[in-house]
Write a structure and sequence with these properties.
Order of helices and strands: HHHHH
Helix content: 55-70%
Radius of gyration: 30 Å
Largest sheet: none
Distance between the termini: 91 Å
Strand content: under 5%
Shape: rod-shaped
Number of strands: 0
Structural class: mainly alpha
């Protein structure tokens, strides 16, 4: 039973190795063989598991930071105007 590649890097290495074997078997230069099997650019922009997890973590962190009340040192102090005027007299 063949174990399938679990990451895109391993899958690319397996594809490259298979292309090298095919190149030697058919006598076609590897560059020409690889150029014939180039995947469209839309495949390279597909969402990966890593991208999904990083995006979700960023979204949760942003939501957690946005939901927190400001720290007490950063909140403006509310001053009663009447008391302030009496203190200045």
């Amino acid at each position: 039973m063949t174990r399938l590649a679990r990451t895109s890097g391993i899958a690319n290495l397996r594809r490259l190795f298979a292309a090298g074997v095919e190149s030697e078997r058919e006598g076609v230069p590897l560059d020409e063989l690889l150029a014939a099997h180039v995947r469209p650019a839309s495949d390279s922009t597909a969402l990966t598991r890593r991208g999904l997890l990083l995006g979700g973590a960023g979204l949760l962190a942003g939501a957690a930071l946005g939901a927190r009340p400001p720290a007490s040192g950063l909140a403006p102090e509310v001053v009663n105007g009447g008391e302030l005027l009496e203190a200045l007299r």
